[in-house]
C-alpha cells in the first residue's frame, strides 16, 4: 500500500498546483535557511582531528604578577611564555611535543617573472607534522639534526611550491625567504585543518592555512618576528633575547599522549613543573594550571561565537514560521478533498488508511521541498563564500549535512501535515454523501 499511496502523493502534486507550489516553496525556503546556517555552524564546530583529538593537549600556565589578580579569575591569554614552552618540549611526558608561533615574511621567487611577495607561515618543531597528521606530497619534515642546529630549511605548502617552482618536485632547491637562503626539504599535500586549533592567535581559525614552515630554532636564531598577538605584564627590554627571557606570552605548546587516560600524568607533571618554577620566583599567582584537549580547547577559546549559535536558532525559528504557513496551506488543500474522503470512507476505508494516505502525500511534498531547499541552500552557501576566504572554507556542505537536509525537510513536512491529516480523518461520510 505504501507504493500505491506514494504514487497517489506524486499525482496529488498536480491538484491545486498553486497551493502545492506555495507549500513546496515555503518549505524549501525554510529548509534552505536552516540548513545553510547549520552547515556553517557545523563546519565551525567540527572536530578537526577526531582520530586523536582526545590525545592532543594544550597547556596553559599563568605567568602574570600577583598585583590585580583575583583567585579564580579566568585566564584570558591563550599562549604561554617561550621558556615554559621550551621546558615542556624538554620534559613533558608524551609521545610527541611541539611548540610554535606564527611567522610571516617576504620571499624572492626563483622564477624571475614573479615579483617578491609576502606569505604567512608557522615556526613549529618537527613533531608538529606527525602530531597533526600533515601529509607530504614530496620530501619530509626536517631532521632532528636540522632542528638542533637551527638549519635554514623550509617545508612549503603544495600551492606555494607550485607557485614558486611550477609543477615539479622542489626538494633540494633553494629560495630566499625573510632575507636568508633556505633549502626546501618537503612539500605538504593540500591540507587544511578547520578550525586551525593548533594556532588560534593571528588570523582567522578558518583561514586557508600556512604557506610555509620553518623550524622553531631557526626562527628564533633569525629573530623572526611573530605573526600574532603577544601579552606582556611587564616592560619588555630591548632585543629579541629579552623577549625570550621574559614572561610575555606569545608561544603555543601541544603535547600528544599515547592515550586519553594519560591526561592525569601530564597534568601532574604540569603542576610539579609550576611548583618548581615558583621556587625560582616565577608564577606568583599560583593559579591553576589548565590542560585542554582539542574539543575543550575549542570551547574554552570560543571558536564558535555566540552570534553564530544565535543565527542558527533564528534560522530554525524561521523554519518553524514556514511550517505554520505550510500547515495552513495543507488544511486548505485537504479541505477541498472532503467529498473524496467521504466516498472512500463509505466504501470501507478506515481512518488509519486515510491517515496513512494523506501523511504519505505530505512526505512527497517534503521530498520535493527538500530537493528545492537543497538547491537553494547550495546557492546561499555560494553567496556566503563570496564574503571572504575564511567563509569560503566554511561554506561547504558535506555528506552529513546533505543527508540532514532531507531529514529536516521530510520531518518538517510530516510535522506540518499531522494536524491537516488528522482533520481529514474526521470527515463524516454520511454528511459528505448527503451533500453530493
UniProtKB/TrEMBL annotation:
Residue stretches spanning the membrane: 21-44, 313-336, 357-381, 401-419
Membrane is among the record's keywords: yes
Pfam families in alphabetical order: FtsX, MacB_PCD
Location of the MacB-like periplasmic core domain: 20-267
Superkingdom of this protein's organism: Bacteria
Domain annotation ABC3 transporter permease C-terminal: ranges: 315-428
Entry keyword set: Cell membrane, Membrane, Transmembrane, Transmembrane helix
Keyword Transmembrane helix belongs to the record: yes
Membrane topology: Multi-pass membrane protein
InterPro entries: ABC3_permease_C, MacB_PCD, Macrolide_Exporter_MacB
Cellular localisation: Cell membrane
Family annotation (PANTHER family): ABC-TYPE MACROLIDE FAMILY EXPORT SYSTEM PERMEASE COMPONENT 2 (PTHR30572:SF18), MEMBRANE COMPONENT OF TRANSPORTER-RELATED (PTHR30572)
Annotated protein name in UniProt: ABC transporter permease
